[in-house]
TrEMBL record, chains A, B:
Belongs to the class-II aminoacyl-tRNA synthetase family. It comes from the Eukaryota. Residues 160-549 form the Aminoacyl-transfer RNA synthetases class-II family profile domain. Its main location: cytoplasm. This is glycine--tRNA ligase. The lineage of its organism: Eukaryota, Fungi, Dikarya, Ascomycota, Pezizomycotina. It comes from Amylocarpus encephaloides. It catalyses: 2 ATP + H(+) = P(1),P(4)-bis(5'-adenosyl) tetraphosphate + diphosphate. The keyword Ion transport does not apply.
Length: 665, 665
């Protein structure tokens, strides 16, 4: 499907990109030093857009639900990321080309070469090669090397296709075997790359002056939030459910970042960790508020059957029929959708894709990505995972910290179970140095085992317990040292480890999608094709109002200053353009900056304090007195009114945009 | 001078610190893993305070002066920080203790041991040892080891004192010599530490998969701004002066961070780079707006004479009499002062200290630090330096990028100077491979040299030029290859490298000072000494309003919800405390959180929709209807009114704060 602009024009990424750089939405970092792949700076409009999106995010999520925002460090000691699994698993497989030293991502390499061969086969068979629709999970790559028309055996074709279908499931050794078996060569050098080695994607450093304190830059903000769980629960006065939230930079050392702003090494994330009781089906008290929100879903079963058909369905129904695992997850999917809509994501370019079983971390219960459509394909911009109790459990196990909730039970419950008493006075002296290990092994015995041992004790007067590392590994304990009894205990509290629902936003990716989704050119109105427009919704637009004096006439200066101060005092960001360029050129520049409104100060303004207000998208203008214009601006920025409302209420101003310089007396 | 609380009570740092941690303003990062020195997380109130201070900073500086905000990466390739001087110079000297492996900062070590010996000497001489007022430039350290009463020779005392006076001026080798010469031993092990080695304070990492791309985490945000200078000037439509600004994390790998939140390894900075034409005395067009702002200054001359006397002086006068180098620097000092005042810095605990000549970077023209007084001494929180043209010059030289301003001259100027023409057709063939080097050497000749050479050419028919690396280093060029003439040229433009005035804010340090400056306990009113209060000004307070229902009676719930939504809709952050604790306890908790206002919802509210509004600082209450209460809250938060005004306008509510649980029907 061809990508089009907001106004249905064919989309040209190079043109948009050059405009974004010209207007300094972004710029490659360290460009005067030649730049560094995967690192970008935001210039003033990019920076303001980001600040506005973050501000709305904070209002939409943090303030709306009284989330507990925290700011944790990016520097993280290795031990924490070892526990979380990142040190061992947060890696890609890479190969080195022995001839030119190129570093290649192994899975991408195998995929590209096999695809190239399959294309060559089709060409040889005289089949027209049609680029299939992009696989949502894979980034589009320029295929390496040229396609040679070589026919393959039917069996080989089938082998290749099977490999490609499960390319994400191979480990490094298996990828290496594929490279050898099929003699896959780097087209740039015509040699096989070296066997794949794991490359951890975290940036490593040392914390402090001694080299024995390795650390990493965090690859996500989540771990800092988990480690503070107990304190946050205390801060929340022990009330469940609750959520923490964090906005901050994360870092991933991509092997060879491409795709511009979509795959970068340093990026802003906004993450929420919502803690919920795993009992009771993970209901959400505000689910009814969103149950009718319709989402475009691409579920797991559809993908399994090799299709990408989506369905538009109310989240209430999707949870009811089990497509989405639970209410809390569904609640956040709907809230994510509403947020993306609010900031200006094109509603026809958004879908929620469920993770396949083999894509999810082994502990995750369910996971959906909000994907936005761009010229690079469907891009994951928000992940929303049910991480179950995994993170709190591993950190609690490693540190012994009580990362759990104690809940007072309204109705105490009685629990009947096997309990074990040891005669400590005799037990220790009897087993001496092995006492502690044997005691621990006994205390760890599960209920069903205790049942059986109670019978043994009764019949044999002793039991045999497995204790690793003590003697033969089997230890006998006689009945004068131990009692095993079934007892009933009344519990007034319940302890549990909460589950975590984690909406995780890649802010930079969302910003890039906003550029693509809101871009069009005046060519669509029959105007100048070279004049770009970014139709950001007023609440996120970098600057809200452009102030343009008709010319450099001195008479306009006090009014420009007055209106500028006035707008600032009501919290509206504005910019003055009093350069000598024509009115039309000045507006044009600000259309590219996405400024939604413009005020022209002309001779009429000097006379009667009326101003014209211009709408970026239609270029229509209205004219009214100061207070009326300011009220209109406020309502457009708050989102309480749209331009169509303003046009109905206020008299149109028919003066054309003037490209030529106005002669000034 | 003893530090006191905002209400003049003796200040106890341990008590404040424990309160800040209990209320989760901050917490040591990774505490359940044992923590990591110099890394701290902010909990919800610390995070909100930080966001509010940043928001005010952006309004006070960025929006007020249309600064160009940028967001650059923290990851920085080594080459850039090599050029800026950080790779070679951003280091401290450290020693290793050979016995226990302790890492010691060399200058601190020498200082501490010599001070301990001088104290011992005084004790031996029977002189009472008085702790002198803390040196503003040095962090207070617990002196190592115990003071032994050993009398020293008078000459030795003098030597020690001279060393201490210039302790900042020794390099590593010299510090090593001092350790040997005076046999300075680590009290912990009674051995001399190993010779000092330089320890660079930047965190190093590798960018990308190959190890030949070393990088660092930025130690300041400034470099990213300098590298974007040319693009920012273009964005600003070539208009000077202008400023860029950036808010972001920076990183410094301190050798052994102490002093809690004041010396950390990862911290938020807000930096401004204001570019100004070096010609014309660095005037500032808005200087008249601040010229009467009075600052407390500690100038260089006073410090040179070993004193710390300050003077309170209007910035207009300080610039006029040359104490502060120029108007632009003075303008920012005043603006910094106004900002610190606005966010709640105690006016009696702020001074501006001028850097001594040996403290400043060699390129700096003048530098002042805004220092805030705390229990740790006077702490540098904002630096304001005139960095001259240093940064732009070194990066331009290294990369060849034109980091300069071209200014159209209103009146063209004629320049008379010596110009050189080479006969290129003959010159190249004559000198062959050396041609380029010789040409470059000739073109680099300064005016005064050209003058002399023109005479030589006239008299001798040839000149001799120094060209490194060509033959003997002297090259003769005869008059058939070269012409040297005095000519007059008319220039319509002027090129110059702007100077940079850099106000640089350590946000974390400022936040810590806000805690100390706004803290007191109810003991000062004759109340409970254990009840802390943080009297933040309403605009920066983490939460503005606490909503407390009198009890858990169902009748209050709709009103609590209603007021909560109402406050949110007018942009006021509030928190509900409907826990079962007494009203008094709930207010008390929020006094410690610095919440300035409280609304109690009681049975009267249910009847007539009136509410009480409570002031944190006086605990006084007023009562009025909803709209009146909301208007009062808005005006207090905007800073347009103070509590004294509200008390005059609205009827007092005399109901006492109740500590006991209210019985509920």
């Amino acid at each position: 499907m061809a990508i089009t602009t907001l106004r249905g024009q064919p989309f040209d990424r190079q043109v948009l990109d050059s405009m974004l750089r010209r207007r300094m939405f972004y710029t490659p970092s360290f460009e005067i030093y030649g730049g560094t792949a995967g690192l970008y700076d935001y210039g003033p409009p990019g920076c303001a857009l980001q600040a506005n999106v973050i501000d709305l995010w904070r209002k939409h999520f943090v303030l709306e639900e009284d989330m507990l925002e925290v700011d944790c460090t990016a520097l993280t000691p290795a031990e924490i990321l070892k526990t979380s699994g990142h040190v061992d698993k947060f890696a890609d497989w890479m190969c080195k080309d022995p001839k030119n030293g190129d570093i290649i991502r192994a899975d991408h390499f195998v995929e590209e070469i096999l695809e190239t061969r399959l294309k060559g086969d089709k060409t040889a068979r005289g089949v027209k090669v049609v680029e299939k629709e992009e696989d949502p999970k894979k980034k589009k790559k320029k295929s390496k090397g040229t396609v040679e028309a070589v026919k393959l055996d039917d069996a080989v074709v089938q082998e290749y296709e099977e490999i490609l279908a499960k390319i994400d499931n191979y480990n490094g050794e298996e990828l290496g075997e594929l490279i050898k078996k099929y003699d896959l060569k780097n087209p740039a050098t015509s040699v096989q790359p070296e066997p794949p080695v794991a490359f951890n994607l975290m940036f490593q450093t040392a914390i402090g002056p001694s080299s024995n304190a390795p650390g990493f830059l965090r690859p996500e903000t989540a771990q800092g939030q988990f480690l503070n769980f107990a304190k946050l629960l205390e801060f929340n006065q022990q009330q469940m459910p609750f959520a923490s939230a964090s906005i901050g930079k994360s870092f991933r050392n991509e092997i060879s970042p491409r795709s511009g702003l979509l795959r970068v090494r340093e990026f802003l994330m906004a993450e929420i960790e919502h803690y919920v009781d795993p009992q009771g089906g993970k209901k959400h008290s505000r689910f009814h508020e969103v149950k009718d929100v319709e989402l475009v879903l691409l579920n797991r079963h559809t993908q399994l059957s090799g299709k990408t058909n989506v369905e538009k369905i109310a989240i209430g129904k999707a949870v009811a029929d089990g497509t989405v695992d639970n209410e809390t997850l569904g609640y956040f999917l709907a809230r994510i959708h509403l947020f993306l809509k609010k900031i200006g994501v094109d509603q026809s370019k958004i879908r929620f894709r469920q993770h396949m079983a083999n894509e999810m971390a082994h502990y995750a219960a369910d996971c959906w990505d909000a994907e936005l459509q761009t010229s690079y394909g469907w891009i994951e911009c928000v992940g929303c995972a049910d991480r179950s109790a995994y993170d709190l459990t591993v950190h609690a196990k490693k540190t012994g910290a009580p990362l759990m909730v104690r809940e007072r039970l309204d109705t105490p419950i009685s629990i009947e179970q096997w309990e074990i008493d040891l005669d400590k006075k005799k037990f220790g002296p009897f087993f001496k140095k092995d006492g502690k290990a044997i005691e621990a092994a006994i205390e760890a015995l599960p209920q069903e085992k205790r049942d059986a041992l109670a019978q043994d004790l009764k019949s044999d007067g002793k039991i045999t317990v497995d204790v690793e590392g003590v003697g033969s590994g089997k230890v006998e304990v006689s009945k004068d040292l131990i009692v095993i009894e079934r007892r009933t205990r009344v519990e007034n509290t319940r302890e549990f480890t909460p589950n975590v629902i984690e909406p995780s936003f890649g802010i930079g990716r969302i910003l890039y999608c906003l550029y693509e989704h809101n871009y069009w050119t005046r060519g669509s109105d029959g105007g100048d094709e070279a004049r770009g427009v970014l139709s950001f919704p007023p609440p996120v637009a970098p600057t809200k109002v452009l102030l343009v004096p008709l010319s450099s006439n001195e008479a306009f200066k006090p009014l420009v200053k007055y209106m500028s101060l006035k707008l600032r005092s009501v919290g509206v960001s504005s910019r003055v353009d009093d350069s000598s360029a024509s009115i039309g050129k000045r507006y044009s520049r600000n259309d590219e900056l996405g400024t939604p409104l413009g005020i022209t100060i002309d001779f009429q303004s000097v006379k009667d304090k009326t101003y014209t207000l211009r709408d970026r998208d239609s270029t229509k203008q209205v004219r009214a007195d100061e207070d009326t214009i300011l009220a209109a601006i406020k309502s457009l920025i708050d989102g309480t009114k749209f331009w169509a409302d303003i046009e109905k209420e206020l008299p149109a101003f028919e003066g054309q945009e003037i490209d030529a310089e106005i002669p000034v007396r």
